[in-house]
Predict the structure.
Amino acid sequence: MGAMDTQGAATSAAESSAEDAAERRDLAVRAAVEQGLVGGSDTADPLTCLLDVAGIRASAAALTSAFDGAVAPGTPVLHAFAVKAAPLVPVLRLLADAGLGCEVASPGELALARAAGVPAGRTVLDSPAKTVAELREALALGIAVNADNPQELERLDALVGRAPTASPIGVRINPQTGGGAIDALSTATSTSKFGVALRDPGARAWLVRAYLDRPWLTRLHIHSGSQGVPLALIAEGVRDLHALAEEINAAAGQRRVDTLDIGGGLPVNFASDEPAPTYAQYVAALREAVPALFDGSYGLVTEFGRSLLAKHGLVLARVEYTKTSGSRPIALTHAGVQVATRTAYAPAAWPVRILPYDAKGAPKTGDPVAQDIAGPACFAGDLLATARELPRLAPGDLIGVPDTGAYFFTAHYGYNSLPRPAVHGFTLTASGEVRFHLVRPAQDVPSIVAEAGGPLRDALLPASPAFEARGSGRSPGL
Ligand SMILES: *Cc1c(COP(=O)(O)O)cnc(C)c1O
């Protein structure tokens, strides 16, 4: 089979899976209304979030098989899911069951990975501001650590010198290959805050020396992709990483660097159900730019987040009211900045699709009318879409916001004390019946009060009379 055939087959497989996913989504919406998870009535929840379990499994399988098909037999490959994309323990557990590990970047994310039962040997810690306590814990657990900068490496010198560790340790480099379409998400600009800037004067020599001086440095790390970054640019960074590893190993006269952690950052298509680019295309881009990457000389670690989860999440929200303002129809819904923070603040960079459903959860049809889809928060920019052509929405209808499985409802923003909505996974039985599985309960109002210092109600009041009696002798009026 030629390269064209392989690509054609991969594309049509992706297409049929996109159709299946859209079908499963519509079944799930209907069932969510029927089963009372969300709906138009006053007693139903006005907002809920769904995750397609079969879709998540399919993405994990696509990632795994894309690499399995490329690496030399026997090459160790760890796909570590970037926890920040969907920090939900049952999701991490599902991915672990599909053979994936976790990439964590805070004590909270590490705790989530451990709660999911992800073993230390399948966990990677990356973050630009690790404390000594975090580093000590990571080394004690034996999880992989990627140092961000020379000062962190000095901390590791001290810790590694004091106690033996099973942790594989690497250094993150910034290839300075340039940014993508979204500034805030471009990690490989010349002045990026991440990693050791490879093209700065003296940096390369410093890195080689650092590895020669430290036999325990065995990995190199890069994460140069993200939403808005083209595949060729991601591949260029990985090529530079591989070249640096070769240079270090040549200088060491041995295979000092044995593993390359090539990060994540595969962009996601927010315009349709099609997963694009695919993992197969990503691997093809790497094979073209760095053929030697897969020859078995190096074990590989990946750290994908968005591309594994985004397309499998759906926000479902009730339309509470509709109105017109300056002749523009507006639907006031319960999904806004709290579940789609980036879309509200940077709408041009993070456009989302809006899927209209009627009050029964059936896809809504009708002549398209340009409408604004607004969220519930009290600021003017809380819009999910502006002048979007949709069948005219009515109170009690639902809107679905697809492609929101990563960095949307899993990265809640607590504006207006809006609660974190419930998250339900869904599966289909053999007979096509939808089953929901609670992944995260909705945040209730008492817990909002508690997290907002409810139990500390009097903390800021003037000192109590009892304190005054012991204290300054000043009158409470002063
Ligand atoms: C955020 C992040 C990832 C995941 O990025 P995606 O774009 O979600 O694939 C991987 N590695 C590191 C170091 C990250 O910061």
